[in-house]
Predict the structure.
Amino acid sequence: MKTHCTPGRTDQDAKARERAASAEHASPDQDLLDRRMARIGYKLLVMSGKGGVGKSTVAANLAIALSLAGKTVGLLDVDIHGPSIPKLMGLDAGRVVSDDEGVVPLEVGGNLKVLSIAFFLPSDRDAVIWRGPMKFNAIRQFLTDVNWGPLDFLVIDAPPGTGDEPLSVAQLTGKPAGALLVTTPQALAVADVRRSVAFCRQVDLPVVGIIENMSGLTCPHCGGRIDLFKTGGGQGLAEEMNVRMLGSIPLDPRIVTCADSGVPYIHRFAESPAAQAFMQVVNRITETLAPAEPSHR
Ligand code: ADP
């Protein structure tokens, strides 16, 4: 995809160039990072324009859905300020170990590995005051140290918005990579995703597609549909921005209870409409992208 330079983004451009240069020249570990990333078939950066639209929920459930579809998957959480993946997956830092090859991601089921940058941060309080270059260095160090081994997909949960973390990931992971944009149907959220699409175009990260979350609720009493956050926002945006609509995930109160108890929803309620919708999104992703077999890497 072509990089589009838009007026008013020059600061970010300059920052991006500076960091790319520092990544190239200042890191003795660059080779190791490149080798680690080269073993990953496709990196999927899950983004949203704003918090609370279900980005982490979508990232976690998509990673599981990809693994259920037979793919070897890594789920990486780089949300320095508000990491949700450990809680969603019921994981804690105590189980993380290192060996001669690097940090060993936590295995969840046969072909899913998970790791959160939160496990390595000195404290939440320190991370909150980090400036851009510190975040970039922390993410680079983290990506360099973790030994994922061969993967078909690495699903990356980045913080909302278009700040330092998604920028760092887009610059450090290399290609092939693409973005999944999560939105709710509401016009307010959709406007934010427009900015994410512009960001992706600017950093030359292909947009794999849009996922509309919290898309309708089935009334438990009458079975009728309630469009709590309106309807059709994701589809309209996909058409407007010329990107693919990958699917709509309905609201399900059990997603909230699963998140609070650390039980992956899609495992627990595999037959639910939302779980089926996740599987459908995965089918569309794998149809669109066909990563090389990990054994070849
Ligand atoms: P984000 O990462 O965008 O901040 P989260 O994944 O943390 O959002 O989700 C925000 C809240 O919404 C959480 O309480 C989560 O359990 C809930 N949630 C997300 N998606 C759904 C859904 N489809 N149905 C019901 N609740 C959802």
The radius of gyration is 18 Å. The chain has one domain: 10-285.
